[in-house]
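Pasting two entries for a bug report.
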Amino acid sequence: MRPNFLVIGCEKCGTTALCAMLGRHPDVFVCEPKEPHFLSFNYDKGWDWYESLFEPGQNALARGEGSVSYATDEYEELICQRLSEHLPDIKLIYIVRHPVKRVESSFRFLHSGAHPYGVLLPLDIGKALAYRPHMVRTTLYWERINAFRNHLPDNRILLLFQEDLKTQPRQTLDKCFSFLGVEPGKLTDFKSEAVNESKHLYRDTQLLRYIRRNPVLSKAWHTLPWRLTHWLEPKLRKPWNDNMQIHWNAAARQKFLQHIRPDAQQFLQFCGKPMDYWDLRS
């Protein structure tokens, strides 16, 4: 049993919330785990493994998954080749959000992990984007989706905005259900779900970051009794949520906006959104 739709929105754009909400519909099945990443970096697990994920949903009209790795420049061409060969009738749902908010949320998320990105990623967002340019390339929505449009007709690609999912969940999900060929009226609970929220994230203090990066101190840290490190670590980390402003260097912010603005405007125009739907001023 293979999927007939994929949610390919990039990281921190609401794919997890969208998949959870879609999965409430009695005729829609979203596999567990929601992100098998099969078509990208788990392909060696084989089609038997992938198909087994959808067996519980064999009676559903729509069966899908939502791996964020599918919407990255690193894998997109490979994904498109595999879709053309093995899933030629697949439908895609691509969800995006304000480019600046996406990279800020991704920046917070990466810093919440102690290893490897949380340790190596610079604490300054401008330097972090230079260190991991993948964060910028993933935010070039028009460029990313056109890789898929070169292989699939537009009527099999649905473009969504996280902002609309939050403010108009009923209309946005109805659009999804119609696209997937299931009856919108069967779902009565359109309450938006907030998952993977940044309020659960923490970041290292400068002291803990120094300890993690220093080979001698890092080794010593890992030799400490578990109870001691378990007591110390929360005191050396700070909660970090979306309400805590990230301070951009003015030049770095301008550079980022200049880079993504033309792409974002083309994407908005294609979707029929006004040019000021996202505030992209420097």
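Entry 2 (this is the one that rendered wrong in the viewer):
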Amino acid sequence: MDNYQTERRYTREPYNSVLEFTVLLTQATELKRIAARGETVDKSPAGIGLLTDFPLEAGHVLEWDDQHTKGNLHIALVKWALQIENSYRAGLVFI
């Protein structure tokens, strides 16, 4: 995780909010959409940090509705994910 901290262009600031998101997964020729939820831990103009029970992996794509602007959709790529006991801490970059 320290390598990602030094690679960041923007400093992240603490940000706690419940986030309901959809994980987009490709299995064979099928696109699966799995609903999940987590809690943001920090944010920057380029991405967010997330804590969730869903087993996120680098490369997963997540989407969620903007909580402040109806009809605005956010899409992010999981840049890294670490399992911490029964939870996952992930760094997301907006795409």
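Dev reply: Rendering is fixed now. As a check, the viewer should reflect this: The chain has a mean pLDDT of 90.
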